[in-house]
Design goal:
heterodimer, A: mainly alpha, MetI-like fold, 12 helices, 2 strands, globular, disordered N terminus, B: 283 residues, alpha/beta, 6-stranded mixed β-sheet, 4-stranded antiparallel β-sheet, 11 helices, binds adenosine-5'-diphosphate, binds magnesium ion
Chain lengths: 294, 283
């Protein structure tokens, strides 16, 4: 330690201009990083400061009382879980199939591929409130689902699909062509290569796509206002209306005077959930990496 | 230009190699693979023009020539790996046991099982060593676990890898050294019982020791398989090849300069270019 200090350059003034520029850039990068981390920390601390007092296991297990000012969020949690389940049950198989089709079976430059890609890009940029209106027209009214968990989940599936497809497609494309050639050289079908080699290798990337999608779905309120509604009862089936965590936060904060405390507490739960999902996926991803030896 | 190796082989003294096993292995010199006027282009640019070459059954055919003369392209066209390159088009005629290789009606999966390819860079799947061996078998209809294991063990034995990996079969194949990976790829190909093995510079990414092991293996496979090996190493070609073909690029287009027995090309080539190349003066 001491010897290294002794041989290190004595100060910025002694360094050539190039080095000084590098140092400036490094300081800038650090400053920005610190700022970002600081903002995040501030938000988290603010949430904890206001919400922690209301939090406890009872909060997670009890039904809300007094329009949500008191009591817990059990039905809201259940609704969130159900809607997320519907969303993923639809978006993941459909999205994976599309991603595989786009990356493995359709030539990149073909008109069809271009069309699909362009469409996904447009869809990814559509504001969620528009998805809400679309879901309301299609699922709630045209398909007669009414305000329901199913309609909300399907709407969210439409919303996260473009994101999930694009990210999964990128993950698949990032798999080296060597493996595709090796599989073809052994007389394996493309389907076999996808199933047994490409998907496992791309899994960490696909999990990232999944986390992004779940994050987007969990955070969504606008698209659900017109599709799953904001009833606070415990949903008994997919045909029941219900509100998610994000909508609960929104309602308590905006429309229920005196609901701020529980709004904060709910927000903590929402954040914690996101963190948990992130962590879980990272663990699974690491496990896969160990198995494939990359 | 002579394009087909002659049917009988000259009995000549070959000081660099013991001739005994070799003479038994491909005595008849009947081609199993035959390329006729094969021209390959990538997106309109011709990479290989009018190559006619017979690959003799059970023999080791070495394809030599400077970089970019179309050796890999030729090799890939033999089992239609060129199909994977969107821009590539192959015209002419290629026959495997008199059956056409080119054309839409060909069952590519069956063809590639019969004509296996070992790439320059070892490319085991990022799966366990065991799965690398069993997964292609399963896809080709060997469903019985015990049978899969049996074939795996036999093939790993044959490439001299069994004792090295028997305790780590369920560990990632990518954890093996380069030479071990290449031998695993060879074992993986052998498990499918191909008739022809195409090897594209299989030793070039390996250190000399690993390279010598692979070379020894290739020699052991003589007779049981038909082997086409692209190599930059003339000494290696001289040591192991029965037949040899020299490719050359003129104006960016690869052509076959001369083909014949390895001995012919080394000791009494017909073309001046061949003479210059084998004596190390060109390429
Ligand atoms: N995928 C490809 N796309 C376009 N050109 C290619 C491709 N592969 C090879 N070529 C061209 O074909 C010629 C022969 O290449 P190759 O068969 O790899 O030669 P070699 O194996 O003898 O070094 C080269 O000029 C090379 O640039
Ligand atoms: Mg090559």
């Amino acid at each position: 330690m001491t010897t290294r200090e002794a041989t290190a350059p004595r100060g910025a003034s002694a360094a050539p201009p190039r080095r000084r520029g590098d140092r400036l850039a490094a300081i800038l990068v650090w400053a920005v990083a610190t700022l970002v981390a600081g903002v995040l920390l501030w938000i988290v601390l603010d949430l904890l400061r206001h919400g922690l007092v209301h939090l406890g296991h009872a909060f997670l297990l009890e039904a809300p009382r007094d329009a949500g000012r008191a009591g817990g969020i059990a039905p809201v949690l259940a609704t969130t879980g159900l809607i997320l389940a519907v969303t993923l049950a639809v978006a993941v198989p459909l999205g994976l199939a599309s991603a595989i089709l786009l990356s493995e079976f359709i030539r990149r430059g073909s008109a069809f591929a271009q069309f699909v890609r362009r469409s996904l890009e447009v869809l990814a940029g559509v504001p969620s409130i528009v998805f809400g209106l679309f879901g309301n027209a299609l699922f709630v009214h045209y398909f007669g689902m009414g305000y329901s968990v199913a309609a909300g989940g399907l709407t969210l599936a439409c919303m996260v699909l473009p994101l999930f497809v694009r990210a999964s497609e990128e993950a698949l494309r990032a798999v080296p062509d060597d493996y595709r050639r090796a599989a073809a050289g052994l007389g394996l079908t493309r389907f076999a290569a996808v199933r047994s080699v490409l998907l496992p290798v791309a899994l960490p990337g696909i999990l990232v796509a999944l986390v992004l999608s779940v994050g987007r779905a969990l955070a969504e309120a606008a698209a659900l206002l017109f599709t799953s509604g904001y009833v606070m009862r415990m949903p008994e089936s997919l045909a029941d209306s219900g509100r998610t965590l994000a909508i609960h936060v929104y309602e308590l904060a905006m429309n229920v005077p005196g609901g701020e405390g529980n709004a904060y507490a709910t927000a903590i739960v929402l954040l914690g959930l996101l963190l948990l999902i992130n962590l879980g996926t990272a663990l699974i991803g690491r496990h896969v990496l160990v198995r494939t030896g990359e | 230009m002579e394009t087909e190796p002659p049917l009988e082989r000259a009995e000549a003294f070959r000081p660099w190699h013991t001739p005994s096993p070799r003479e038994d292995c491909c005595p008849a010199r009947r081609p199993i693979l035959r390329a006729l006027d094969v021209t390959v282009s990538y997106g309109g640019t011709t990479a290989l023009r009018n190559v006619s070459l017979g690959i003799n059954r059970g023999c080791i055919t070495a394809i030599v020539g400077p970089s970019g003369c179309g050796k890999s392209t030729f090799l890939m066209s033999l089992n239609r790996m060129t199909d994977l390159v969107g821009s590539a088009s192959v015209i002419g005629d290629i026959r495997l046991d008199e059956q056409p290789v080119l054309g839409d009606a060909v069952d590519l999966l069956a063809l590639r099982r019969r004509v296996g390819l070992i790439a320059q860079r070892p490319n085991p799947f990022p799966l366990s060593i065991r799965r690398n061996m069993t997964f292609p078998l399963r896809e080709h209809g060997v469903r019985d676990r015990a049978r899969q294991t049996e074939i795996m063990e036999e093939c790993l034995h044959r490439v001299g890898l069994w004792t090295e990996v028997r305790d780590r079969l369920d560990r990632p194949a990518l954890g093996l050294s380069g030479g071990q990976q290449q031998r695993l790829c060879l074992a993986r190909a052998l498990a499918l019982e191909p008739e022809v093995l195409l090897l594209d510079e299989p030793c070039s990414a390996l250190d000399p020791m690993a390279s010598a092991i692979i070379e020894g293996l290739i020699e052991e496979l003589r007779g049981r398989y038909t082997i086409v090996i692209v190599t930059h190493n003339l000494a290696q070609a001289r040591r192991i090849a029965d037949d040899m073909a020299l490719f050359w690029a003129t104006d960016g287009v690869g052509t076959l300069v001369e083909a014949g027995t390895a001995e012919q090309l080394f000791t009494r080539p017909c073309e001046a270019l061949t003479r210059a190349y084998v004596s190390g003066m060109r390429g």
